[in-house]
Amino acid sequence: MIINSISMKNFQCYAGEHESNYLEFSNGLNLIIGDNGGGKSKLYDAFYWVIHNKIFQSDQRDWVSTKIYKENLISDKAKSECQIGETITSEVTMIVTSRDEKKYKLERIYEAKKIGEREWSSKADSAMLVSVYSHAKWNIVPEPKHEKILNRVIPGHIEPYMWFQGEQVDSLMDLTDSTALEQVVNLLSDIKDYDDLIAITTTGASRTASDLIRHKNKLSNDEKKSNELNATLEASLKSIYKYEKDIEVCDYNIETAKVKVEELISKVEDAEAKADYKSRRKALVDLCKNLEKSLLEKHGSFSKNIFKKHWILKNVDPFFKKFEAKYKKYSKEHNRKENENSRVVIKLPLNVPQPIHVERMIEEESCFVCGSAAPKGSLAHEHILSLIERKPPKDIFTNDLSSDFEGYYNNNLRYGISIQDIDSSISEELSVIQDLKNKRVVAERQIREIDNQFDILLEEDKSEDILGEFKQQNRSRERFEQNKARLLEKLRVTTQQRDDAKTGIDKLVTGEIDKVTLISEKIFSQLKSIAKSTKQQVFESIILELEEKSNEIFRDMTHKNTSIKGKIKFKKITNGSYIPEIVDGDDYIINSPNDSNIILVKLSLIMAILTARAKWSDNYALISDAPTSKMADNYTFGFYKTVSERFTQSIVTTYDFLEAERKAVLSNFNMGKVYQIESHYPSGNSDNRADLCVKITEVTI
Amino acid sequence: MSLLKDKFGNLKPGYLPKFKDFIKQISQFGGGAEDDKYINAKSFSNVYELYTYAFFIALYKDIKIDLSEDDKLIGFWEMKNWEPKALTDSLITCAIAESNFDMNALEEGDSSYMTEQIKLVKREIEAYANAGLEFIKGEIDQDPELLEDDMYFINLLSS
Amino acid sequence: MARDRNEILQEFLKNEKLLELLEVGALDAVDNSFKDKSKYLLVEAIKKMILSYSTEDSTSQTLKKINALISTEVRSS
Questions:
Q1: Span A175-190+539-673: which CATH code?
Q2: What predicted TM-score, i.e. pTM, was given to this entire model?
Q3: Fewer CB within 10 Å: N-end or C-end of chain C?
Q4: Quick one: CA dihedral A436, A437, A443, A444, positive or negative?
């Protein structure tokens, strides 16, 4: 809903009637400019009180309910002017418009009766009135409907991001917490649907798996053994689950240690040496990774080459020869039978030489086999001609298999040459692998060397004693990596046990397994895995969208400031979640960036969340109390511009623009109403809180 | 498709049941195991690769298992599906060379004679391949680490 | 269930894991619609699940519907 106005009667420092404490708002950026102590935060409180019936207690930095705060929320001035025996109220009225153009009046009223100079008989709680405007009058909405309407003013789940105090921004989002973004994604999308589907398919998968096991048990020819195997299966499934969880923890810790190491590096003062270290180390690490990858590929293809490059035929020669001899003997015999009754004896198999070559021999009057001339009319020419006329012999053999055997023989012949090269082919591959290994050793040594150099740099660095922590973090990372390796091995063994148990159970089954039970188990297990991976896919696409949007907003907000080089990057960590980081052009984390920068990143994120999919920025008012309080001066311009352009309505209190000359800049923004507020003591004594009220003046830009 | 190739293509040579687990251990058996992402890569991507390999190893080492009709061998996949095809053809020629397969007599015999001769070659293939499996399994049982060594299967060819 | 069920189906159908399991590169238009019947039982099971979920069935109702689908399909094949 869009907020049309707010008015206060005797609410905190806003002494007096509604008419004198009335602020009207329109679309765009509505600004309430005021100095410290001018009533800005109390105005923010007024919005909050109407919706939540709670008041911010500054000394406790917390929200307390009206039931506890009681008459303290009534203006001191009103209280002092009230006579004993009289009743006094503190009220806040908000008028809002819904998307369907319905106007609602929200009134919260608290009543107290003065019974002594400083004694009050207060109502236990405030009263709420909600009215809807129709037929040219306000009509009371019954109480059961209140909550729904209040929730439409600002839905609870987006409120933390839509209504906030400047000093809260920092705590709104913990950038080092890997679940922060996940919570945000849950909030701004319907990704929960996918969680529900995962839960459904997981239940389905586990039920159908149990059904199948029960069914197999029934069909088992050894019930005792089946039970044993089932116990093993269950135990291994449990262990697998545990190992996988433990591996996740290791991954998380490895990631944390890596981030800490990065942070420490960024603390070193010698910027040039640091940059040099980082780039050299990165190059070497990348090289190592590439070498590792090539090695892995080579190893993989190495065993594949047994078949691909037919290394398997390495010693086959004598056996090919043996076949050749057998084939020769066969061929001779076959040929003899073929020629038994023919005029000309041709010892070559049919179609050898191939017909095209025979035709050329005839044309060129020459025998291509022996090289002799075969002029027309000669016996040799006749002989060649007879090759063309050859027909397959009929009825000599039950099965003429000559072309099959010839095919086999030719196949072996084709292998012949490459078989001779197998030894050199193997040693060539081996030397490539050895070469890669050597390069990796060198690169690893170089990494150790530059790490040592960096240790020296850290020792010499006067900024902080960080060498110890640096080493400790590195050690902790190594430790977790070792743990992880151990867990992976255990996981491998247990997975094998699980598979063995499954095979064992299957072996005991006699008779046919029911097809429906079998296929149900398969389909549900597939559904489960697809649901999981679809959720991850959707999650990642939202994250990507959010990252783009945050950067767009971050750029907008910082475009006036040339010193900022960073961008927001959502770094994927091994457990599948993301943490936001501010990185430089080379993707290195910019650590210890100034507070202002961090606030800006968080604000960018918040605005990205609000303006992303759900378009909350279109439908609800952003209300913020002094959002720029922790922001450097030169960022405020970008902030206001962005807010004014991206939110249909925003209501912001601030001490920026107090000076008249600074107000000029506001004409650059899409503005709503602008007010200046200040404390006002009608009697002129600014020490007398019982005389305090607030003067509200509308400012024209 | 020629007659003989067709007959050989439809052969389904088998292995002794005692090798089933071993074969599963070192070759990709049936479809891929999608969810077992942590399982080590298998040395052979198909059973027929391992089987072909075992055949040649045994052939080079000149070891054979004397199989009888009572041995209930487990057949796995018709030879026409094995890859590379040329290699399978060479394997057949080696089995022909080593067996009493009579090429000439085959051309004159009836279909039952042919079936008998084809069976001779199949028995030859099985005799070598199972001996090869026995040999490799023996080595790996003694030293499971061999499976981690990419060179093992190459070295075996040379030894 | 705020999200459009067609959108959820789209997300499921473009998932690589599904394509991998079905051993196809992409799916057909019939797979993409709740009206038409896919030749893959798995795709039909996904549709059934989303439909049932989007009509706010309970988990056990959804599972029952998928089970019934599998049972009918398997017996008729």
A1: 3.40.50.300
A2: 0.55
A3: C
A4: positive
